[in-house]
Amino acid sequence: MVGTLNIMSETGELSLELPQDDPFYQHKKKLLSCKGLGVKETLSLNGSLSQELLNVAFEKLLQFGRIANLDKVEVYFGEDACTPSGVYSVRNEISALSWILSLMIPVSCKTQTLEALRAAVKSRINDVVGVEKEEVRVDDSYRCGKESRLVQWGQNNGVKTKLKIAQIDGYGRGAIATEDLKFGDVALEIPISSIISEEYVYNSDMYPILEKVDGMTSETMLLLWTMREKHNPESKFKPYFDSLQENFCTGLSFGVNAIMVLDGTLLLDEIMQAKELLRERYDELIPLLSKHRDIFPMELYTWEHYLWACELYYSNSMQIKFPDGKLKTCLIPVAGFLNHSIYPHIVKYGKVEVETSSLKFPLSRPCNKGEQCFLSYGNYCSSHLLTFYGFLPKGDNPYDIIPLDVDVIDDEDTESELSWTSHMLRGTWLSNNHDMFHYGLPTPLLNYLRRAHGLVHHSETDLWKNLEVEVGVLENLRSTFEDMMQNLGDADSIDRDNADWDVKMAMEFKERQRKILSSILDSCSAGIKLIQESKPPV
Ligand SMILES: C[S@@+](CC[C@H](N)C(=O)[O-])C[C@H]1O[C@@H](n2cnc3c(N)ncnc32)[C@H](O)[C@@H]1O
Predict the structure, then answer these.
(1) The pTM is what?
(2) Ordered domains of the chain (ranges, CATH)
(3) Three-state SS for 224?
(4) If DSSP codes are grouped into helix, strand and coil, which group holds residue 217?
(5) 20 to 30 Å CA-CA from 373: which of 117, 203, 288, 414?
(6) 292 CB under 6 A from ligand 1?
(7) Is the CB of residue 327 less than 8 Å from the CB of residue 310?
(8) Which atom of ligand 1 is nearest to the CA of 314?
């Protein structure tokens, strides 16, 4: 729950409150205050408001909802990252609107104003996206036999779906709406009994062995169970295992040539470290498994099979909250066909509904018949998506940040509640403020660097009086990013059309990194020029 909204029917007021346990409470409080809002707000619902007052009330509700629903990256980049119409990100906009609506739905008090506000929110939800209205190109030559058998199996076991599975250009299999789906419609519903979770390990012959192993996690147990169950012809989940890919093309399966292309990127370290860790874990498991070959047939527990299972869990599992309150890693047949988007339709899922003992995937924005229905896997940067899922999302990923390795200054003068312990940058085209003292760069980072240059107070007057600090800050940043750009080397001369899938993906990633770095370099240079040509206010 990101915030609370209560309707007090006796007074006809609607009250909003930012919860104090929000991890970014102070930052959000400041952002709210910049919009003229407090952490507690009320809206009067009495009588019927004029259209003008209704618009004001709606904007207030939306501003509050947006800020309450910001995540860490969005809070960090703050106000400067809004579009001119005030949108922080599509994810945030969808979350804010569906949050407002979901809290209004159960309200019994029906005033004209409340109904008008509800209608305004619904209408805005319909307008939110359209950014990725790309045509769905279905590969009709792909017969979807395994997929249809899985869906049929699901339906025989209580799965309800308004999606059909198809092979879609650029996505592998994906889920397409079979009818017009509106906000709140449930695209897919999976009963608990059709979800693969740790419960299956507890009831298997593996458990008495695995439970005695120090440090054995339920995730590892489930992984080992899956590796064997996949080959069990009697498995309850046979249609699911049959529908899985033979090979997962994630960063963990990148070959030498792709790894060479990634030279100079942080992604190279990320992939190498992740792979090393998996190898270490596998080497630790083998002596244990080989002591119980009757339970763990060694031909099913080779390194290749282990890597396959890890890639399966990284790219297809979901964290689900069960009625006992436990968060469990699960494989979810049919739902595993949903692809990710920065402009998702489904953002709120992951909790088993107690009344129906099922997991529901409701829409947070409409998806018309024939459109691909997208999920949000989470707010991940492209290097994470490439390493663990094996794709780069379409469009500008607002979570594509470059973390900066900086020492946190222990300075008593800093506003401790508002200071950040880590800093980051991203493509500066995502900022709408390239003016003096902003330059398209994030304010928390600029203030951190100003402090590092000895400037503790950052009012406009202070900044105007210390323009040499501004130049120093931008020159420092520019030199750091020139080094990073140099590390990336020149654009690769490989023939991309004929390159392997992993080399193509590595090249695409590097190109995106270059675009981000060059936008930062351009912003530093433009900022220095702006300062040199500026005339301080008299
Ligand atoms: C949960 S599965 C989704 C179904 C998958 N497409 C399939 O054919 O089985 C996750 C995988 O789908 C692919 N995927 C998901 N979102 C994608 C996207 N936006 N673009 C391209 N591939 C995507 C990636 O291969 C990822 O590892």
Answers:
(1) 0.92
(2) 4-127 (3.90.1420.10), 145-250+282-380 (3.90.1410.10), 402-533 (no CATH)
(3) helix
(4) coil
(5) 117
(6) no
(7) no
(8) 27
